[in-house]
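Running low. Any example?
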Amino acid sequence: MRKEDKALLIESIKNTLSQYSVIYMTDTSTLNAERTTALRRAAFGADVKLMVVKNTLLKKAMEQSDVDYSGLYPALAGATTLMLSNVGNAPAKLIKGFRQKKETIPALKAAYVEETVYLGEDQLEVLANIKSKNELIADVVALLQSPAKNVISALQSGGNTLHGVLETLSNKE
């Protein structure tokens, strides 16, 4: 490959990385064509971009990026497939769902989520349980709404009770 072509590929990888806040590095080299196609379809459905890259080009693109990806460099060995997303746990859930047949493929090498680096296969469960930004916002809104709903409920039930007592008293005389 010519030097100019490599420079274009590095720039393309760098631009792609800048569009996503979550990067998972996996190894899918042992998947056959049928399983690879199934993984690509599942990734498309989960809004996760799959991208097979050469480690040297990926490292150069990461070095040129504004983000510090240096924690991911130890995982740049062997075949690397990137799973890119803007939702922190989407690729982890995709991997877990794909592994329902007791396979270990795709193997998680490393992940970069919310400026934190996760190295190793043992981090998959942790990554799958990370809540997305929208889930966290929904939890906070639910917590804020709960006391207000309790007050309104108490006022409404108290009003009905008071109304019932007054009506009974008025009917009694």
The two ends are 101 Å apart (CA to CA). The chain has a mean pLDDT of 84.
